[in-house]
Amino acid sequence: MSLSGWWLGFALVVLIATPEQGETFMQKNRKTALLQGDILIGALVSVHHQPKKQSIKTHTCGEIREQYGIQRVEAAFQAVDEINSNPDLLPNITLGIEIRDSCWYSSIALEQSLEFIRDALSDPSGLSSGAGSSLCPRPNNRTKNIVGVVGPGSSAVTIQVQNLLQLFNIPQVGYSATSRDLSDKSRFSDFLRVVPSDYYQAQVMIDIVRHYNWTYVSTVHTDGNYGQSGMTAFKELAEQFNLCIAKEDTVLSNAEDFVYDEVIKRLLEAERANVVVCFCEGMTVRNLFKATKRNNVTSRFLFIGSDGWADRTDVVKGLEDVFIGGISIKITSPYVHTFDELYFNLSPFNNT
Amino acid sequence: MSLSGWWLGFALVVLIATPEQGETFMQKNRKTALLQGDILIGALVSVHHQPKKQSIKTHTCGEIREQYGIQRVEAAFQAVDEINSNPDLLPNITLGIEIRDSCWYSSIALEQSLEFIRDALSDPSGLSSGAGSSLCPRPNNRTKNIVGVVGPGSSAVTIQVQNLLQLFNIPQVGYSATSRDLSDKSRFSDFLRVVPSDYYQAQVMIDIVRHYNWTYVSTVHTDGNYGQSGMTAFKELAEQFNLCIAKEDTVLSNAEDFVYDEVIKRLLEAERANVVVCFCEGMTVRNLFKATKRNNVTSRFLFIGSDGWADRTDVVKGLEDVFIGGISIKITSPYVHTFDELYFNLSPFNNT
After folding, report:
1. Is residue B128 over pLDDT 50?
2. Where, subcellularly, is it found (chains A, B) (predicted)?
3. A2, A187, A233, A237: which has the fewest C-beta neighbours closer than 10 Å?
4. Domains of chain A, start order
5. Chain A residues touching residue B148 (CB < 8 angstroms)
6. Hey, is the C-beta of B26 within 8 angstroms of any chain A C-beta?
7. In this structure, are residues A216 and A244 in contact, taking their beta carbons and an 8 Å threshold?
8. Using a CB-CB distance cutoff of 8 angstroms, which residues of chain A are in contact with residue B342?
9. Which H or E run contains A275?
10. Could you tell me which of A129, A194, A124, A201 has the C-alpha nearest to residue A158?
């Protein structure tokens, strides 16, 4: 047994690496959006992009996101307003919502979830006060009564948040986390979602490939649970229907340009594989398109994308020549005209 | 835009799924082992197996583990004792350790990490009291001064714990988490480890395969970060050296028997692929061996295993006929004879 020797090793390393004094990330004041109510829904929305490689250490989020960020925040507020003004929904109860920024990033989402947990435990009705012994409830003058959490957007981040929330029996509802893994009720007992599992999406992709009699395709997926579980489903089906995979690659959404260049170079090696099936988050698709352009192979590939791409303009803007002929999948959802009315009448200067 | 419609959907689902009253998992009293000291190391050890499928909902851990559990606990205590009795190491400071059971399972490890965080924030020296505003420090009569966390064993669980600990700048040291992903300092800023990255292990596996001129092998990996990142590294190298992958499969460590039977059946489909490269946790290997035996194909495959298997007797006990001819990789570590002396003289009845 060599275990004892190892332990001696860690003990010393730990002592050298004692925590820094002063500020921790948890002290960072991130902006939140709050609509007060008798009961509150906590919502995690990626209002900013995930931290860039060089800003991860300071947990500084990236650029602001309109479609995945601001629009979802405004849509959430509109939905809550509609519920509150409808006498048939929750009569005599005012629903509120507190929206926090998850920045599409696990540790930031966990940080914000801890805030929700504190609020859930300090439920002024006293119903869940028994759990207060584990994590500190807020002082009594706090009046937030969080009853559940909605979001976040990313499957990988949702899984991590769910692992934390289930310890406190706080229900969580996903609005865009489609990973097949999240269907496993034994692992993710307090999670429900309003979007279908990626298992069905993989089937649609296979159907497209078979429809066009493509028998030799390459694949790329975003590193993380969404891409991995989706691509696993695709490959299981591909085997069943005797489709051959030429090259397969995986890449982090926020990887640097040269990493994407390498992906394109590897795809080019399979000379007769022109179709690239991409089970990717939107920003992975965008970076892949950019790399295609950078490497002057604009019309070489035909991309098939999942709902991470869907019909998002922020994915394809300025890269229209690259994705011509591409096919992407979008989850059916009705067009909400009242949202357009609200959204296009908002002013960024006074938010009214 | 259909976003508003979706949000209405979640809002209602959340309201139906309000939290259960009464006990949450965080109230569960899990046993801990504590050796008091001026400063404490928190340690996460998998003293029990992960919850079985049917016990996940109640977060009830599986069977007790001797090699990965009890032995590591005893080795940790011995290491701390050695440091304290050595006048050259940490003079005038008594090192202590608090060991918590992570059960090789993410949400249980997160639950136990929250306890460490509370102790770290209530540092009686007052050094890190600034962070106390975020998560509640324990009452003043608590005297635990956790300065860092060692463990847990699993890479996937380590990543989730690290995402939480880095919010509080609590350093973490891995003793067996070998995933290549954990080398990314920008994502896992407060993590160090005393074991090498799986990138090197994948190279060793490739070297073995090439040494024997095997050009057509199947692969299996444990679903989760350890298996995924290890297998990704293996496949990258396999492509480089023109090795062909016959079948590839992925399976959860605690999956049920019929799932493992299906894996074996798929491996059998590749009639000329006899070598199975398994980037797997120990229990995945054991379940695979059991399924091989159950399906009466004992001498059909030759398994190549990673350090999850290594030379562990708890993996192969009773299945010696299945693994004959197999090759597994073990990380170099010196034999600690003093540990044997201590361990074999312990009595399970009075723990002395």
Report:
1. no
2. Membrane
3. A2
4. 25-193 (3.40.50.2300), 198-328 (3.40.50.2300)
5. 14-15, 17-19
6. yes
7. yes
8. 4
9. strand A275-279
10. A194
Contacts of B229 (CB under 8 A, 6+ apart): B155, B179, B180, B181, B198
Q: Report, in this order, helix, strand and coil percent for chain A, each rounded to 5.
A: 45, 15, 40
Residue A168 vs residues A64, A103, B26, B244: alpha-carbon distances, Å: 31, 23, 6, 47
pLDDT for residue B68 is more than 90: no
Residue B213 CA to its chain's centroid (Å): 33
Do the chains contact at A134 and B24, CB–CB below 8 Å?
yes
- Do B3 and A339 make contact, defined as CB atoms within 8 angstroms? yes
**Tokens standing for A251?**
């890449």
Q: Is the pLDDT of residue B6 over 50?
A: no
Q: Name the pLDDT band for B59 (thresholds 50, 70, 90).
A: confident
Please give, rounded to a whole number of angstroms, the shortest distance from the CA of B154 to a CA of chain A: 15
Closest approach of chain A CAs to the CA of B346, in angstroms?
A: 15
Does the beta carbon of B37 lie under 8 angstroms from any beta carbon of chain A?
A: no
Place of tokens 């701390």: B80
**Residue B142: predicted pLDDT:** 53
Across the interface, of B9, B11, B167, the residue whose CB is closest to A25 is B167
Please check whether residue A73 is in contact with residue A62, taking contact to mean a CB–CB distance below 8 angstroms: no
β-bridge partners, B302: B275
Intra-chain end-to-end CA distance of chain A, in Å: 68
pLDDT digits (tens, 9 = 90+) for B163-198: 999 888 899 999 989 888 899 888 898 999 999 998
User: How many residues make up chain A in this entry?
Assistant: 352
Q: Which residue has the higher pLDDT, A12 or B332?
A: B332
A267-299 pLDDT per residue, tens: 999 999 999 999 999 999 999 999 999 999 988
Query: Which of A14, A192, A311, A342 would you mutate first to test chain B, the one with the most B CBs within 10 A?
Result: A14
Q: Residue holding tokens 């609590």? A: B170
Quick one: average pLDDT of A200-227? 93
Residues A136, B134: C-beta atoms closer than 8 Å? no
Q: Using the beta-carbon criterion (under 8 Å), do A27 and B131 form an inter-chain contact? A: yes
Is residue A197's pLDDT more than 70? yes
Task: State the pLDDT confidence band at A234, using cuts at 50, 70 and 90.
Answer: very high
- Which residues in chain B have their CB less than 8 angstroms from residue A28's CB? none
The dihedral built from the CA positions of residue A345, A346, A347 and A351, taken in this order, carries a sign that is positive
The reply to whether A259 touches chain B by the CB within 8 Å rule is no
Q: Do A72 and B7 touch (CB under 8 A)?
A: yes
Closest approach of chain A CAs to the CA of B298, in angstroms?
26
Q: Would the CB atoms of B170 and A19 count as touching at under 8 Å?
A: yes
Q: What is the DSSP string of A163-231?
A: HHHGGGT--EEESS---GGGG-TTTSTTEEESS--HHHHHHHHHHHHHHTT--EEEEEEESSHHHHHHH
* pLDDT range class, residue B57, cuts 50, 70, 90: confident
**Cβ atoms < 10 Å from Cβ of B290:** 17
Cβ–Cβ under 8 Å, residues A50 and A253 = yes
Contact A276, A306 (CB under 8 A): no
- Tell me which chain A residues have a C-beta less than 8 angstroms from the C-beta of B107: 163-164, 166-167
Å between B13 CA and nearest CA of chain A: 7
Q: Phi and psi (nearest 5°) for B185?
A: -65, -25
Is the distance from CB of A190 to CB of B13 less than 8 angstroms? Answer: no
pLDDT above 50 for B127: no
Task: Tell me the one-letter amino acid at A59.
Answer: H
Chain A window 53-112: which residues touch B at a Cβ cutoff of 8 Å?
53-54, 56-57, 59, 71-72, 75-76, 78-80, 82-83, 89-90, 95, 106-107, 110-111
